[in-house]
C-alpha cells in the first residue's frame, strides 16, 4: 500500500497540479512517476509545500501528446508500485460523439417524463 494520498488542485496553463500528503508520519520523500501510454513524462516536479505538511506535484502536459481522442496520464508511487491518481484529456471527435450521445439520452428521458406527467394529469382530473 502506498504511503501517500494525492489530491488534485487544478489543471492550469498545461500543468496538472496536486498535493501529496504522507499517511501515518511516513518519513519518505515521494518518488513519483507520471506516464502516458507507458512512456514517462519529463519535467515532473515534487516540492515540499511552504507549511511543510506535504508536497506540491506539478506535471507538465507535453504538447506532443495533445491530439484528438482520449489521452490518459497515470501518476504512480514508484516505491509502492501503485497508481495514486490519473487524469484524462478528451478532445476532437471523441468528445463530440460523447456529448451527442449524452444529449440524446437526456432528450429521451425528458420525453418519457413529459409523457408520464401528461398521463398523470389526465388520470387525476
> Portion of residues in helices?
25-40%
Strand content: 35-45%
**Might you state the CATH topology name of the largest domain?**
Immunoglobulin-like
- End-to-end distance, in Å? 62 Å
The largest pleated sheet is described as: 4 strands, antiparallel
Low-confidence stretches: none
Which CATH class of the largest domain applies here?
Mainly Beta
Please report the total strand number as a whole number.
Answer: 8
Mean pLDDT rating = 89
What structural class is derived from the secondary structure elements?
alpha+beta
How do the helices and strands follow one another from N- to C-terminus?
Answer: EEEEEEEEH
Give the domain tally.
Answer: 2
Give the strand order of the largest sheet, numbering strands 1, 2, ... along the chain: 1-2-6-5
* Shape verdict: elongated
Secondary structure topology:
Blueprint: E1 4-12, E2 15-22, E3 32-36, E4 39-40, E5 45-48, E6 55-60, E7 69-77, E8 82-91, H1 93-124
Antiparallel strand pairs: 1-2, 2-6, 3-4, 3-7, 5-6, 7-8
Features:
125 residues, Immunoglobulin-like, 2 domains, 8 strands, elongated
Describe, in plain words, how this protein is organized in 3D.
There is one protein chain. The chain has 125 residues and is an alpha+beta fold. It folds into two domains: 4-91, Rab geranylgeranyltransferase alpha-subunit, insert domain (Immunoglobulin-like), CATH 2.60.40; 92-125. 26% of the residues lie in helices and 42% in strands. It is built from one helix and eight strands, in the order E-E-E-E-E-E-E-E-H. The chain has one helix spanning 93-124, and strands at 4-12, 15-22, 32-36, 39-40, 45-48, 55-60, 69-77, 82-91. The strands form two sheets. It has a four-stranded antiparallel beta sheet with strand order 1-2-6-5, with no helix packed on it. The longest helix is centred in the last third of the chain and has 32 residues, at 93-124. The radius of gyration is 22 Å and the shape is elongated. The chain starts with a strand and ends with a helix. 11% of the residues are buried. The model has no long low-confidence stretch (mean pLDDT 89).
Amino acid at each position: 500500500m502506498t504511503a501517500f494520498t494525492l489530491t488534485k488542485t487544478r489543471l492550469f496553463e498545461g500543468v496538472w497540479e496536486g498535493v501529496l500528503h504522507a499517511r501515518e508520519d511516513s518519513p519518505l520523500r515521494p518518488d513519483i512517476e507520471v506516464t502516458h501510454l507507458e512512456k514517462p513524462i519529463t519535467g515532473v516536479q515534487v516540492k515540499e509545500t511552504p507549511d511543510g505538511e506535504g508536497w506540491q506535484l506539478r506535471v507538465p502536459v507535453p504538447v506532443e501528446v495533445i491530439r484528438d481522442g482520449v489521452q490518459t496520464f497515470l501518476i504512480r508511487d514508484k516505491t509502492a508500485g501503485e497508481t495514486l491518481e490519473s487524469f484524462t484529456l478528451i478532445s476532437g471527435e471523441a468528445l463530440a460523439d460523447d456529448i451527442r450521445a449524452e444529449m440524446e439520452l437526456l432528450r429521451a428521458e425528458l420525453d418519457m417524463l413529459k409523457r408520464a406527467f401528461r398521463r398523470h394529469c389526465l388520470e387525476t382530473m
